Amino acid sequence: MTIFAIPSRVYFRVKILERFNFTFNFAYIQTLEGISSLIPDSNGKHIIFWDIEGCSLEECIKALRKVQKKYDLSDIFIVSDAERSFRAYCYNKVDFKQLLHILLDTEHLDEIFFYYTVKRGYATLRTTNKIDRGKQKLVAVLSSYPVVIPEGKVTQIVYDTGVEKEGLSIILGGK
């Protein structure tokens, strides 16, 4: 019988002198690989990647159909490796500002995915398996019109991510 389970992610925040915060976190992480939305040698063009969480496949399809129509996007491919968790992509070439507009207009978009897209200046589509998940499988194609897959080399990305998205918060000092 487990009386107390140690969380896999802990955030610490200490307020110092009423004007400063000292923060850090301790998390169980995994290293993953993906590809960048930024197309090399394309004058800053991106292909469109999404990370959609917390919805059914039907809700995911509805959200992507909405932006597909609004922005006249090509075929969208949806993959999944867990219930209520989807990644999607299409091969339209857009500038970074338009990519952000498309992402902001997409319901159920993972907020952390959006945060890191803005921070890095490109989106990342995960290509490796997460711990305790199977391979990503194609679960739907939203047909519109085909476009030529951008030629050239893609940029491989290696990044660390927490195994759990939420954890225990410890706040000392302050309100």
List the helices and strands and how they pair.
Elements: E1 9-16, E2 20-27, E3 29-36, E4 46-53, H1 57-70, E5 76-82, E6 85-94, H2 96-104, H3 111-120, E7 124-126, E8 137-142, E9 156-162, E10 168-172
Parallel strand pairs: 1-10
Antiparallel strand pairs: 1-2, 3-7, 3-9, 4-6, 5-6, 5-8
The largest β sheet comes out as: 4 strands, antiparallel
Work out the number of β strands.
10
Cα separation of the termini = 36 Å
Query: What is the beta-strand fraction?
Result: 35-45%
Number of helices, counting only DSSP H or I runs of 4 residues or more: 3
What features would you describe in this structure?
- The structure is a single chain.
- The chain has 175 residues and is of the alpha+beta class.
- The protein has one domain (9-172).
- It is built from 3 helices and 10 strands; from the N terminus they run ββββαββααββββ.
- The strands form 3 sheets. A 4-stranded antiparallel β-sheet has the order 4-6-5-8.
- A hairpin with a 3-residue loop joins strand 1 (9-16) and strand 2.
- The longest helix is centred in the middle third of the chain and has 14 residues, at 57-70.
- It is globular.
- The model has no long low-confidence stretch (mean pLDDT 87).
